Amino acid sequence: MAQKKIHCDCLDTIKPVRDTLDVINGKWKVPIIISVGVGNERFTDIQESIPGITPKVLAKELKDLEQHKLLKRIIIDEYPIKISYQLEPYADTLTPIIYALKDWGINHKKKVME
């Protein structure tokens, strides 16, 4: 019976972690969130702030983040039309996770370089 409890406890952790990774997984989503969070609102500004990202990939990732309610696409009805991106308040819930990942990455690099 104890083995079954351990298995359930494991799944209770694995499933939500997997759900989280499904949303923020990949090479580009967290960097995009960081870029928009520090004030890059225009497509070209976001692209220029993230080395190596292509316009096609950026457009796809922005749509994904918008669908997950982490990012808002704002259309400014002028001529020419301007589009900007802002983080939704819900994206703030990722801030402690992003800083934890940053700290872990710094410490991991030190550990590997020992």
UniProtKB/TrEMBL annotation:
Biological classification of the source: Bacteria, Pseudomonadati, Bacteroidota, Sphingobacteriia, Sphingobacteriales
Pfam family name, one: HxlR
Record GO terms (molecular function): DNA binding
Name this polypeptide is given: Helix-turn-helix transcriptional regulator
Keywords: DNA-binding, Transcription, Transcription regulation
Domain HTH hxlR-type intervals: 8-113
PROSITE patterns: HTH_HXLR
SUPFAM superfamilies: Winged helix' DNA-binding domain
